[in-house]
Write a structure and sequence with these properties.
The chain is built from 15 helices and no strands. The chain is an all-alpha fold and 363 residues long. Helix 2 packs antiparallel against helix 3, helix 2 crosses helix 9 and helix 9 packs parallel to helix 12.
């Protein structure tokens, strides 16, 4: 049973994100033939695409009072279909350029110069990451929000329903009242999904297993941001990443700063939006600003990040559109690429759709 659980953790939280993300990373011109950066971008976008597809499948099923099993089946069916379509598209786009796996093995055009200083920086980055991520694996932060977050997930896992039992009393409410923000952003159903698939308790999935991978995504986002800002200089990028980790440790002792929610409760929806989705949106904007080719792929990635943000919380519904929309419009205004305006509408579409749905349910 332990072997099965370990295999499922690797399959769902490592293998599936990589399969989903690689077709998005390979066409990105700024990462051409840079294996490490392709894999980092692929995993980050693959994880966000998983969350986006959970939103696409969970919300209609929650509103129709369908079972947790239906959500799991719909999500994995959509994920499998997405993987198939993505890889067929990428193979067609990259036909004549050699085997895809061969592309991943190619050396970078600009080789990284590994000095003693860069090796020491890498060791320090890995050490600090291990210290911070280890707190999630070996310890557990508990607060009052556990009653709602973990309570909803346990109810779904135990009864094979979604949002049909009160997290406060355990009473069956069926079509009765439930906070609209939970129905439109059903993030905690991820804990129940992982619990069913991996065969662990939802509390373990929420507090121990998932946070490690989410924090890893946070570090990958800052690593890629540093690569863009430092003009692909290896040593400077590692120095930037080390500075980010030190800032997180310095300001993580509060309760509501971005550093605090990253280090203490990244498994909560709005905390995950602050820790991963916001840096990912900044990264995508930086890439969009420096890219003249294959920009549609980056707009698609921006839409994925916004869709994932809507899945996490009401803050994500509002914040993703308010960040991504002005980013993209400003880039179009500077470069006078007026034909890309429909893509800006696509990026803001999740905020518009789920914001309208929340307003309609609230009214």
């Amino acid at each position: 049973m332990i072997v099965y659980k370990i295999c499922m953790i690797f399959a769902v939280l490592i293998g599936l994100p990589m399969l989903l993300g690689l077709p998005l990373a390979l066409p990105c011109p700024l990462y051409k033939n840079r294996t490490l950066h392709v894999c980092a971008f692929a995993y980050l976008m693959g994880m966000l695409l998983m969350l986006a597809e959970m939103q696409l499948t969970a919300v209609p099923l929650v509103l129709q009072r369908r079972s947790l099993t239906a959500f799991i089946a719909a999500f994995f069916a959509l994920a499998a279909g997405t993987v198939l379509v993505e890889w067929l598209f990428v193979r067609k786009r990259l036909s004549g350029t050699g085997n895809l796996y061969g592309r991943l093995r190619k050396k970078a055009h600009k080789k990284d110069v590994w000095t003693k200083g860069s090796v020491l920086l890498l060791a320090a980055v890995i050490l600090l990451f291990a210290v911070m991520a280890g707190q999630y694996v070996l310890r557990m932060h508990v607060d009052d929000d556990d009653a709602r977050y973990i309570g909803n997930a346990v109810d779904a896992w135990y009864t094979d329903t979604m949002y049909q039992y009160s997290w406060n009393t355990g009473e069956f409410i069926g079509d009765g009242y439930y906070p609209e923000r939970d129905l439109v952003s059903p993030w905690v159903m991820t804990f129940a999904l992982l619990a069913k698939v991996i065969r662990i308790h939802p509390a373990v999935a929420a507090h121990t297993i998932l946070p490690f991978f989410l924090f890893f995504c946070c570090i990958l986002a800052y690593f890629l941001i540093g690569d863009v800002l430092m003009k692909q200089e290896c040593t400077k990028t590692l120095g930037f990443l080390l500075a980010v980790e030190i800032v997180l440790l310095t300001f993580g002792g509060n309760t509501h700063t971005q550093a605090a929610v990253t280090l203490v409760r990244i498994w909560q929806g709005k905390a995950l939006f602050a820790a991963v989705v916001i840096p990912a949106l900044f990264l995508l904007y930086f890439l969009l600003a420096d890219t003249e080719k294959n920009r549609v792929v980056l707009y698609l990635c921006m839409w994925i990040a916004c869709q994932a943000g809507c899945y996490l919380s009401g803050v994500g519904i509002v914040g993703s559109g308010l960040l991504a929309g002005p980013f993209c419009f400003w880039d179009i205004l500077l470069k006078r690429r007026w034909k890309e305006l429909p893509l800006v509408v696509l990026v803001c579409l999740p905020t518009l759709v789920y914001g309208w749905l929340y307003w309609k349910m609230k009214g």
